Amino acid sequence: MSRINTNVQSLIAQRVLGQNNQGLNASLERLATGLRINRGKDDPSGLIASENLRAEQAGLSSALKNAERADQVVNIAEGGLNEVNGLLTELQGLVTASANTAGLSAEEKEANQLQIDSILQTIDRIAGATSFQGTKLLNGNFDFSVSGVGSEVNSFNVNGAKLEFEGTRDVEVVVTQSAQRAGLFLSAGGALDLGGATSTFVIEITGSKGSREFSFASGTALATVADTINSFKDVLGISADVSGTGVRLDSIEFGSDEFVSVKVVNTGNIAGANVGIYQYNTTDTSTANTTILSTYANASTKVTDEGQDVGATINGLVATTKGTTARVNSDFLDVQLDITDNDAQTLTNFTAFTITGGGAEFQLAGQVDIAGKVALGIQNVAARELGRVEDGGTDYNLQDLGAGKGLNLVDGDLSVAQKVISEAIKNVSQLRGRLGAFQANTVGATVRSLGIALENTAAAESVIRDADFATETASLTRSQILAASAQNTLQQANFQPQSVLQLLG
To answer: Which domain holds residue 189?
Structure first.
């Protein structure tokens, strides 16, 4: 059949040429941009997946920078704390040197006091000057704010807490096991009644801090026995009190690290009803057991009683305890609190306090939510906030070492001063340890994890969106050949109707 008006073959060739040109243009575009997906029509579902991965990649990249910034913030805080630690060590040396009363003149003590005053001022200056981009780091600016502190708590530290936006968190405590001191009761039936006027009752008492041997003559009053033992209270870590017809020995502190041991070196043939060594009831530590633990004659080897740590849960988490102190450390809450003696010995529950805000917050994940945040508490390290110690019913801190204060070097109590400094060193060291753990574990692990996640996300996005040059080059070559072939075919199809003219003669 030969028709002129409608050249079907030409139409077919035009259609195919257009398709081949489209394929050729697509290959050229992909090779020019390096992307397989340049617009939605290239791969609708692939475009959606690619854009989601790009968003995740941007979040991960920013989180990685946040982690690196957090490391720098903590580095600056650590530098300030290191200087404070050095100054506290110098304070320790000055107090010890000043205790050498017979070897120092009054002028030397006053000179040492001037150094201490200068050190205290420097500690306050470091606390107020250490900053990152104008934000103070060691003046309590990044400490947590709390309200409603219960009477059941002596002291507390909020090291970390995640709060919802403008939210609060109650710290709920349940005491599940009572804290106990170590204690023994030495029954004597009253004043010591020994076998003779020259007889002596010799005992060795050992506590967590040390050991001493005591010798008492016949007729010695129980009050004298207790006073003699108490004169070594700081050496033994044990206090003595008259209780009924005997003397009660108790460890000064609570906890499983505390103990009271009694060894009888010489009974002196002590006489009296029910004399011997007794323990106290587990559930009522004010009452001695009626069953004797050991007679004095059988106590030639040590008779020992040990203390017990408080047992507690905080916000449903089992706390790590020591003495009357309980701590939990989780991703959402890191608090440590010292429970009062009475409440630590009672199975009870109470709200310790409410965390209302504060802390240094770092966004260490691409997803902005409470799980991706880390909140770190950095306490104030000014002298008035360090080394809190209670002695004889009076509360002291590092500021009390200043001139004219109760713990000054000239006429103050240097024994308590040393305790305050030791506690201050402990405070700063623990803070440095927490910051170091945050850098090494939280930040370090986060940087490594985010780096890997960023690499894998970029690789996944690349697989979806980037052009495969080997494939696109082959496709370009194919499209070029097909386009040339289609052009040649179109030329032939357009020439074909001319052959019909031959039929006209």
So the answer is: 183-306
Question: What are the structure tokens assigned to 29, written together?
Answer: 């575009």
Residues 458 and 394 in one domain: yes
**Do 189 and 301 belong to one domain?**
yes
Determine contact, residues 138/76, Cβ cutoff 8 Å: no
Whether 123 and 199 map to the same domain: the answer is no
Pairing assessment for the beta strands 320-322 and 325-329 based on DSSP bridges: antiparallel
Per residue in 116-155, pLDDT (tens digit) is 999 999 999 999 999 998 899 999 899 999 999 999 999 8
CA-to-CA distance for 43 and 40, rounded, in angstroms?
6
**What average pLDDT score do residues 44-62 get?**
84
User: How many separate domains does the chain show?
Assistant: 2
Query: Which H, E and C letters describe 118-151, residue by residue?
Result: HHHHHHHHHHHHCEECCEECCCCCCCEEEECCCC
Cβ-proximal residues to 500 (8 Å cutoff; 6+ apart), any chain = 2, 3, 4
Residue 29's Cβ-side half-sphere holds a number of Cα atoms within 13 Å equal to 11
Q: CB of 95 within 8 A of CB of 418?
A: yes
Distances (CA, A) of 31 to 34, 38, 417, 458: 5, 11, 77, 20
If you search the block for the tokens 């780091």, which residue do you land on? 137
Within a domain: residue 494?
A: no
Q: Rounded to two decimals, what is the model's pTM?
A: 0.77
Closest CA to 212 of 269, 271, 260, 280: 260
Which region, left, alpha or beta, applies to residue 130 given φ > 0 means left and ψ of -120 to 50 means alpha? beta
Residue 412 has pLDDT above 80, yes or no: yes
**278, 184 contact by CB (below 8 A):** yes
**Is the CB of residue 420 less than 8 Å from the CB of residue 387?**
yes
Please report the sign of the dihedral spanned by the C-alpha atoms of residue 39, residue 45, residue 48, residue 51: negative
Provide the 3-class DSSP secondary structure of residue 304: strand
Q: What is the pLDDT of residues 28-37, one digit of tens each?
A: 667 767 677 7
Q: What is the DSSP letter of 297?
A: T
∠ Cα 179 183 188 (to 5°): 155
